[in-house]
Amino acid sequence: MALLPWSEIDTVLLDMDGTLLDLHYDNQFWMQHLPQRYAELHGVSRAMAELELQPLFERNAGTLNWYCLDFWSRELRLPIRELKQELAELIALRPDAGPFLTAIRDAGKRVVLITNAHRDSLSLKLERVELAPYFERLISSHDYGFPKESPQFWDALHADIGFEPSRSLFIDDTLAILRSARRFGVAHLLAVLQPDSKAAIRDTQEFDAVDDYRTLLDGL
């Protein structure tokens, strides 16, 4: 991966889950903990819980509902906020993220968090990891009513914060979101090679990927 042209970047847009925070927490919650607690609380087998959950997950993937704790609480008849608290000790900042955030903030870059996480998920994670001081704004896609996969999200973000896409860097672990940002005109895009520290590295296809954020600081 070539060095970032930092002189051509004014704004740094950063995803949260899988980008700054280890995605292990979210993967464990949605793929292991939630099916188990669903089975226990609804009195069904774990296998039946997974059979009932899978089509719901597939139908809502990539939509705002996918990220909405209120939606899943209603749909599954479960206290999702409380269940997420049960695994909160797994919430962790990537070890390379802190030095990167400090460096770009100190370099005078405009740094904005843009996440699909529901505000309640964001609050839970901010209780565990001190992210807020690094950012000018902490924006949830729920504020706009559109997920980051949608072009309407980028229109709303642009109207809200007035960033220049051609002079912005965006880092995210979801390829569909990076493609949406590219269509909007964001010039500098990076994927994340290993969003979940306990899982395999990912094929990021047409996007350059970062494995250690500290390697991005050359030339800053």
From TrEMBL:
Keywords: Metal-binding. One of its GO terms (cellular component) is cytosol. The keyword Metal-binding applies. GO terms for molecular function: metal ion binding; phosphoglycolate phosphatase activity. Gene3D superfamilies: HAD superfamily/HAD-like. One of its GO terms (biological process) is DNA repair. This is Haloacid dehalogenase.
